[in-house]
Amino acid sequence: MRTDFVTVYWRDMKKFFRSKYVLITSLIQPALWLAIYGLSMSGSFSLVTAETPIKEGFVAVNYLTFMAAGVVSLTILFTCLYSGTYVQFDKQFGLMKEMVASPISRSQILLGLSLSGLTKALIQTTMIIGFGFILGVKFFAGFTAVNAILSIFGILLFVVLFSMSLMFLSITLGITIEGHESIQSVITLLTLPLFFASNALYQLNSLPTVIQTISRFNPLSYFINGIRYFSLGQKFFAMGTYYEYGTVDILFSLTVLSVFTLVMYLLAIRAIRKVKMV
Q1: For the chain, how far is it from start to end, CA to CA, in angstroms?
Q2: Beta-sheet strand order (sheet of 59-60)
Q3: Does a structural domain hold residue 92?
Q4: Which carries the bigger pLDDT value, residue 213 or residue 33?
Q5: Least packed by Cβ within 10 Å: which of 63, 120, 233, 277?
């Protein structure tokens, strides 16, 4: 098995940990969403839904816990998509030229870059979930120890797929788009619709019909479905809405993410193979 990708991976991780301001701000932003937005809105929604009866078999979930999955998605979205700016810098300053001119195959370069983004996403996701528990996020409430462990593996599977798909997309953008300002604009344009046209912060039935339709084609929505299924259970009540996920629903979400990841990989490998050594 070839391990050339380790060189690319290690170089990118060293750069990440040396950039203290990038590391700190990437953790502070989602933490602020939980601490400020999540806590304040949780109190508001609790007042609105306090008198709503809960059906038997459903678990009541406060808004902070409900939107925690959305904050996880926000963390991964920003971490992975904005990795494309570093790829663009490497291309602009000739480092990408040196990598593709080296004996390392281009598929190994893509793997190394993608795995570094995945590692960052896993580190930040773990820290955000830990911070959420401190604030009062109630993941795995009522789960047995075995179910909690299995659910963690389920969450990791969805995080890996979603992170890799976004890394492939960001690498494609970083390679094909010229100019730092241009790629920043494109990534910002992608990030906002992906996040807000999803079920990250609110239930879909409360959104306008157009947004609901868009969200059904949004891979972020299917990622969040998986996170909520594994962290909250099959049946829960939040913000006046009853949620019930079955095995078919989660397998469908997993399939959508897998297809999205495959398509993004094909685009990324095509883009990196077309990079010219000039």
Answers
A1: 30
A2: 59-60, 235-238, 241-244
A3: yes
A4: 213
A5: 277
- Whose CA is closest to 234, among 244, 242, 222? 244
- Would 205 be classed as within a structural domain? yes
Locate tokens 């920003």: which residue? 78
Which stretches does DSSP call E strand in the chain?
59-60, 235-238, 241-244
Q: Is 278 within a domain?
A: no
Quick one: pLDDT at residue 224? 94
Q: Is the dihedral of CA 92, 95, 99, 102 positive or negative?
A: positive
Q: Say what the pTM is.
A: 0.89
pLDDT tens column, 216-240 = 889 999 999 999 999 998 988 887 7
Amino acid (1-letter code) at residue 185: S
Return mean pLDDT, the chain.
84
Structural domain containing residue 261: 5-273
Distance CA 129, CA 154 (A): 15
Our count of domains for the chain comes to 1
N residues, the chain: 278
